[in-house]
Specification:
The complex is a heterodimer of chains A (322) and B (328). Chain A has 322 residues and is of the alpha/beta class. Chain A contains nine helices and twelve strands. Helices cover 30% and strands 24% of the residues of chain A. The mean pLDDT of chain A is 92. Chain B is an alpha/beta fold and 328 residues long. Chain B has one domain: P-loop containing nucleotide triphosphate hydrolases (Rossmann fold), CATH 3.40.50.300. Helices cover 31% and strands 23% of the residues of chain B. The mean pLDDT of chain B is 92. Classes of the chains: A alpha/beta (322), B alpha/beta (328).
Chain lengths: 322, 328
Amino acid sequence: MPLLEARNLTKYFPMKRGLFGGDAGAVRAVDDISFAIEPGQTLGVVGESGCGKTTTAKLILRLETPTAGEIRFDGRVLAELDGGALRAYRRSVQAVFQDPFASLDPRMRVGEIIAEPLVTNERLPKEAVQKRIGHLLDVVGLPSRSASLFPHEFSGGQRQRIAIARALALSPRIVVLDEPVSALDVSIRAQILNLLRDLQRELGLAYLFIAHDLAAVAHMSHVIAVMYLGKIVEIGEARSIAQDPRHPYTKALFSAALPSHPDERREEIILPGEVPSPVNPPAGCRFHPRCPSVMDRCHTDIPGLEASNGRRVACHLYPAGS
Amino acid sequence: MGGPLLELVGLSTHYVSARGTRVTRAVEDVSLTLEAGQTLGIVGESGSGKTTLALSILRLLPPGARIVSGQLRFDGEDLLTKSPREMRHIRGKRIAMILQDPMASLNPLFTIGDQVSEPIRVHEHASRRSAWDRARNLLKSVRIAAPERRVREYPHEMSGGMRQRVVGAIAISCEPRLLIADEPTTSLDVTIQAQYLKLLRDLQREHGLALIFITHNLGIVARMCDTVAVMYAGRIVESGPVRQIFDAPAHPYTRALLESIPRLTEVDARLTAIDGQPPDPAALPEGCAFHPRCLKALDRCRVQAPPRFSVGAQHTAACWLSEGAPLA
């Protein structure tokens, strides 16, 4: 059974017009998407600005409530949890964000930052808290004396380690990683990516990994979901998506990824135009105005996410069972 | 005229604190050359001095920063002896620059047409009308659809990718010989980045531009550049033809950087991390600045900064491991 499952998950943000708040349509941030995250595995989500990847993360963190569809955790529907079960869910799901300069309170000592989730969620004796702080600092590779220092005394990479320690304080089962290395220096990124992979193996953590760096996502993920304008257009095993993308958007996205060697030649697919507004997404397939392989029916028929050779693709080029 | 388009010899730029007590050696003893029509990548992490180097070339340094030694020649002329007035005639006309954030480089109160035509009016004293005609053509050349309408719009009416194209149009408006792009695609999405890089390459071919890419991204270097200079703590630690540097990096820092980057072609390999972090430019370690993080550090690396050795054709490395090779 998957640890976390999204079924037909949808989030519209209604827009108001003018002073009296007349209805002005809605931003379709996430539109009917389904995916599953297995225990101890990583789902990578890729896509460009406005594709809905951060809204998806917020729905899982319960920072937003879905307009339609549901999220199941351990087989139980999230919307039906209350009291203790909901608190347990919040402990099981933690997050690490992009900017460790913004996500750590500058007036708190590192020990207090890491202990805060413990203090608010678990009534542990002081000594047990201290012991746990020391253990968490050790796990993320920081010296134990860090506990008495303030965030400004640390570099970006070390701050991200503090944020990871805080996320691990309640022994979560899944951690949402929203661009966890993109604010860090190049030589530091590998340290944090390696740490996250080690922690996953040692603690059996599941990750939802969001990043615009495709190679980093392919490196970290077991499954990749590619999103475009609120829809999942392709989802499947990470390596096969990275090496043999099917959907024309996935193809263009991976062909646009920068090479790791000057002789690495990929087919260069330059998409025309830009991502349209999610307020009024194009009819039919949302990608059709930019698609190099567009056909007549793409203007009108919305392609379903159909199984095709071990993955699922939402494109009329790959009809069900192909 | 023969010789390279741009030549820096032993250039050093330091930031000096108000009372002159603290000196930050942001750029130290940098030498490099760039031929007309070629593309040079300057790679480094934050604090490596790459942006200060770019601003030194344009002589656009902030107060407190000063070029303290070295030579800077552009198109056979010595830029260090130019007056501020003469430099103003060079900036924007013969050397142009593109910055990371297009919203910060465009004025929100003026139309796109005003801003694209401004350098033409300033540098070439063109009439408003002919400058606007040129502006429309420039927008077309940076692949902006409906330029007749766009010239009358304001920056906020455009997307990030389109704004960065407008900045590109301004940069090439007076047909510069050299374009310096400082992290020009960092704020753009992947497919928009691909469009923009292709545009820059097309413009380079059409106008015979020389390009300098300031970036932390080795992928941009692999895709765009002919030669590369790797900076660490204010110095160029390795430089040479891109292919040679990727195939046979001579400096441990360059090698470590290349191994630390995830690759789409080998997703399972464990990344080789570089321990520690880049040094504070105001408090650099003794000897080679990379030695505290270097797995191959020798005793002398702790006390003596290495000179640049010539390790191949046009290929230099500032590392004691290359000792024995002739000095560059």
